[in-house]
Amino acid sequence: MITRSKFMALTAGALALAISTATMSTAQAAYPEKPITLIVAYDGGGSTDATARMLAPFIEKHLGGARIEVVNRPGAGGEIGFAAIADAAPDGYTIGFINVPNVVSIPIERQARFTLERLDPLVNIVDDPGIWTVNAESPFKTPKDVIEHAKTNPNTITVGTTGVGSDDQLAMLLLQRQSGVQFIHVPFSGAAANHKAMLAKKIQVCGENLGDSLRVQGTEPIRILGVMSKERWKVAPDLPTFKEQGFDVVMASLRGIGAPKGLPSDVRAKLVDAITKAVADPEFLAKAEAKETFQPLRFLNSEAFAAELKQLDADLRDLWQKQPWLK
Asked: Which residues pair with 203 in a beta bridge?
């Protein structure tokens, strides 16, 4: 038998649950009510930072005017920033760029502070092919020039990258394996520091991405030796691929936005919708395609982005078993 006191207790509990559920529902419906942090796992001034700061106003526009605060959390090849995203409360107020292959390669090569399973890929935005650049005063005109110099002068060529397990380093390792030479790897905390070291002649070769160099080509003394894409890019038709020049190296950096796993479904839907509309916004597209701010766009929805990450994870785990890139 349910006594009056038990009945009152049950009623109070049900009422509290109903109020709590209604409050949560209202809070989610009102999302966003405060600024959203957009984490960039690399230094300011690099490609990811440029993409984030260019895109943020358009996400704000399509998310009802919510403020997006871009925060740089560089270090450990991206691990610090990726971990900050994974560790954040899954409430939609912390999102961030997840860079491929780093976000996949880091948990494979070491005991990382995050796992891929703790990140929720929302939308991919950029697919930026790798390139090699040198200072314009360098004697190197082609990748073959670099390889030949490395063969006759072992362990003298310095190649800068954005860190261990980055697309830049993986491309360098592929070239080493194909040509039988050994480079001196110089990792940096971001693309901007890597690029500046090349300009200052502190490194001989800069492994970076096409967007970085096209934005400054003509204003800085650089020379692009080749692009690591399957075909020449329409925005740079005179730039030969590495494959054309005898090296079968295809490498790129995907840059998309992810969140900590476990977002409320309606919050996630709002974020995906706003980011998708931001990427398709005519004004953003015009900015992304302008030479001064060039961004090699490749939109992938959540499912396609997740599938690409899953496939790359399998590929890199296989590669790690055959030839670890971190020793």
From this structure: none
